[in-house]
Write a structure and sequence with these properties.
Layout lengths: L4 E9 L5 E8 L4 E8 L9 E7 L3 E6 L5 E5 L3 E5 L4 E5 L5 E8 L2 E6 L5 E3 L4 E3 L8 E8 L2 E6 L4 E4 L4 E3 L8 E8 L2 E6 L4 E5 L2 E4 L10 E4 L2 E5 L5 E4 L4 E5 L6 E4 L4 E5 L2 E5 L4 E2 L5
Antiparallel strand pairs: 1-2, 2-3, 3-4, 5-6, 6-7, 7-8, 9-10, 10-11, 11-12, 13-14, 14-15, 15-16, 17-18, 18-19, 19-20, 21-22, 22-23, 23-24, 25-26, 26-27, 27-28
């Protein structure tokens, strides 16, 4: 490909500092994507390896506690595996935007169809009706405490038996979810939209003048991706810019590290140093 753009659509970290990124290349006509591992981006001995590739657009990545990776794509498939073996499952007839789970037998995916799908360790199946718009994020504390957000202020809660629509006083695109506990959940989105609460009780803690994307809890602090403004921290009342030298749209935390993705960059943050490659 002589002329192409590169987008990192998610980065996750292992406890040993290895990061895995979903990287999509676009030449103006078609996508080609890789899962790329970096053994230690802070070291001169870092090893870069393309561990999986497909002629599609990888749109999100999630890593379970066992180390298994889950990647969704624009054709409605979810790819799961490790360095040596991968499986591909056709989950939705339409574009998938997000994949997330609690463990290897409880993984969820959703996208432009507006339907939530669950992997139970053996098969994928729909666990929701069409929720009315494009799904951008799924998170929860358990299979009976699940939240879904997306375009057109789409926001639903699942209690293990039924889906309940949450009507927030906004028409924002709700991009991010952060479940701190069953009683403490944040949902973030465009125009600085930020609500905090649970079930049907929510408080507007929005921070105007910026756009919010994904969120993560790292070192006892809420971190919010701010797109072109970098990454923010939120103390419960106000946001503060932590780093603004690269765009950030995706965040994830495994405990020791915060992993960030945006533009063509994958970044690993250890509380002190920001390290990572720019893919070209």
């Amino acid at each position: 490909m002589a002329d192409y753009s590169v987008t990192v659509n998610g980065t996750v970290a292992a406890d040993n500092g290895t990061i895995f990124s979903a990287v999509a290349y676009y030449d103006g006509e078609s996508f080609y994507s890789f899962v790329i591992s970096e053994s230690d981006v802070a070291s001169d001995d870092n090893q870069t390896e393309r561990i999986y590739e497909k002629p599609c657009w990888f749109t999100d990545i999630w890593r379970s506690n066992s180390g298994r990776l889950y990647v969704c794509d624009d054709n409605g498939a979810v790819h799961s595996g490790s360095r040596t073996e991968w499986t591909e499952s056709q989950v939705s007839p339409r574009h998938l935007n997000t994949v997330w789970g609690l463990d290897d037998s409880t993984v969820y995916a959703g996208g432009s169809e507006g339907v939530v799908y669950r992997w139970d360790g053996a098969r994928w199946s729909a666990v929701s009706p069409a929720l009315g718009n494009t799904i951008l994020c799924i998170a929860g504390s358990s299979p009976s405490d699940l939240y879904v957000s997306g375009e057109g202020a789409l926001f639903w809660h699942y209690d293990g038996r039924q889906w309940t629509q949450i009507q927030l006083p906004t028409n924002a695109i709700l991009v991010g979810l952060l479940v701190l506990s069953s009683g403490d959940v944040l949902v973030s989105g465009s125009a600085g939209t930020l609500f905090r609460g649970s079930s049907l009780a929510w408080t507007d803690v929005s921070q105007r003048g910026r756009d919010f994307y994904k969120m993560a809890f790292y070192r006892k602090t809420i971190h919010i991706a701010g797109g072109g403004q970098g990454v923010f921290t939120f103390d419960g009342a106000t946001v503060s810019n932590l780093k603004d030298s690269f765009p950030v749209y995706r965040l994830s935390s495994n405990g020791p590290y915060l992993a960030l993705a945006g533009g063509n960059s994958a970044i690993r943050y250890d509380g002190s140093d920001w390290d990572g490659p720019d893919y070209t």
